[in-house]
């Protein structure tokens, strides 16, 4: 393991590009569990004989654990480097999938996903986003977007494959095979992450970015600004989780079947890949806070479109629209941290905001199931998501206004 920082000349280099490609593969494998739990939700609910809220609990436990684990794995990566952290993550992903496949109750199934989130997926989320930001200056926005898009590539690849596995092998056998494949793949790719990142520089992310007082981000105390970003992260992801977690169950309730729902989820996340790349280019031009504001407005529009349309073709179109509109929101937080806060604190602050977004996904996944159980319909759950999105939009608008006032 190379304990010395890489030479600063390697920033924006070919080596940085190869590292980004390996990072993308790690994210695709390590985040597989985040989306297939939505695919198995109907069959798990039927097998264990629980309600929709209880069947959503494994997703909630996984996302809470993923958020909390990001703080731990981020600090471990700062101290020991990425490779050993990723090796531990690979073991957790493998064991978690196998445990879930052998589980005899919804609680055992949920705890297996909590293990995968806390140690497995968390090792390939916030630490890799923070690491990527340190290897790029001129193209930092698009580089972070590529890293973050691995999450959506996972959501595009795994749901239809797992649905096919459920239909042919059964969900338990599918889980076990997926755990072995992802765990071994992560272990092998982790061997390419020995090198420490270069020392942090103060080069701005955007060519048009003004010189900012990083001791008072947005003219606020750093703790206050951090807190607002965390609240915004929770709010946007409560809204984001509604379609992502429940689209398969929603399609099943409408009579279209789980396979159509899995296809919609895959389409939604495939569109999210395009969205994250496009928003990465946009953030390099207009900065992180404007990108967050734009993404929040567009996500709200997409959520509104779910209310009047429940036909098969319209749901495919709205799912694609939702993916295109919301994919740039989460990476924007990492860019905002690098633009407005002390770069020496970037790893911890990015981890904290990412933890908040994951807690939002966890809360939103459970809350949507709870609202469904209360009302017997997803209409109120979509309205709940829209309300949370408005909170995010208000915070983003106020921070943008403060930036304009300071300029």
Detailed description of the structure:
- This protein is an all-alpha fold and 407 residues long.
- The chain is 79% helix and 0% strand.
- It has 17 helices and no strands.
- The longest helix is centred in the middle third of the chain and has 33 residues.
- The protein is globular and about 55 Å long.
- About 2% of the residues have low confidence.
- This is MFS transporter.
- It comes from Limnohabitans lacus.
> Tell me about the biggest sheet?
none
> Mean pLDDT, as a whole number?
86
Estimated helix fraction: over 70%
Order of helices and strands: HHHHHHHHHHHHHHHHH
Uncertain stretches of 5 or more adjacent residues: 202-209
- Report the radius of gyration as a whole number of Å: 20 Å
Strand content: under 5%
| Structural class computed from helices and strand pairing | mainly alpha
Distance between the termini: 45 Å
Helix count, DSSP H or I runs of 4 or more residues = 17
Choose one word for the global shape: globular
Number-wise, the strands total 0
């Amino acid at each position: 393991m190379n304990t010395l920082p890489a030479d600063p000349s390697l920033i924006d280099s070919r080596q940085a590009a190869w590292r980004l490609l390996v990072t993308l593969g790690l994210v695709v494998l390590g985040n597989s569990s985040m989306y297939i739990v939505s695919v198995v939700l109907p069959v798990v609910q039927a097998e264990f004989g629980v309600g929709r809220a209880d069947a959503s609990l494994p997703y909630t436990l996984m996302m809470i654990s993923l958020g909390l684990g990001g703080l731990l794995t981020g600090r471990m990566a700062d101290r020991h480097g990425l490779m050993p952290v990723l090796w531990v993550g690979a073991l957790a992903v493998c064991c978690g999938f196998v445990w879930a496949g052998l589980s005899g109750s919804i609680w055992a199934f949920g705890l297996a996903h909590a293990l995968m989130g806390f140690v497995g997926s968390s090792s390939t989320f916030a630490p890799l986003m923070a690491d990527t930001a340190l290897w790029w200056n001129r193209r930092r926005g698009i580089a972070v977007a590529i890293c973050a898009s691995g999450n959506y590539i996972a959501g595009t690849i795994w749901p239809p494959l797992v649905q096919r596995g459920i239909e042919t092998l059964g969900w338990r056998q599918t889980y076990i095979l997926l755990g072995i494949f992802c765990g071994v793949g992560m272990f092998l790719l982790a061997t390419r992450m020995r090198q420490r990142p270069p020392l942090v520089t103060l080069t701005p992310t955007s060519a048009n970015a003004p010189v900012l007082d990083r001791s008072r981000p947005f003219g606020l105390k750093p703790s206050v600004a951090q807190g607002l970003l965390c609240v915004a992260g929770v709010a946007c992801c409560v809204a984001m989780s509604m379609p992502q977690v429940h689209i398969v169950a929603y399609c099943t309730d409408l009579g279209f079947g789980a396979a159509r729902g899995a296809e919609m989820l895959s389409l939604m996340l495939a569109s999210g890949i395009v969205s994250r790349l496009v928003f990465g280019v946009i953030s390099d031009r207009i900065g992180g806070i404007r990108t967050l504001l734009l993404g929040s407005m567009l996500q709200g529009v997409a959520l509104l479109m779910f209310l009047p349309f429940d036909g098969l073709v319209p749901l495919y179109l709205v799912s694609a629209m939702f993916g295109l509109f919301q994919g740039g929101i989460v990476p924007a937080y990492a860019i905002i941290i690098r633009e407005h806060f002390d770069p020496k604190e970037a790893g911890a602050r990015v981890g904290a905001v990412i933890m908040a977004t994951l807690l939002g996904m966890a809360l939103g996944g459970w809350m949507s199931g709870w609202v469904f159980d209360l009302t017997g319909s997803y209409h109120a759950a979509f309205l709940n998501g829209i309300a949370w999105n408005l909170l995010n939009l208000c915070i983003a608008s106020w921070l943008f206004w403060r930036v304009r006032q300071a300029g």
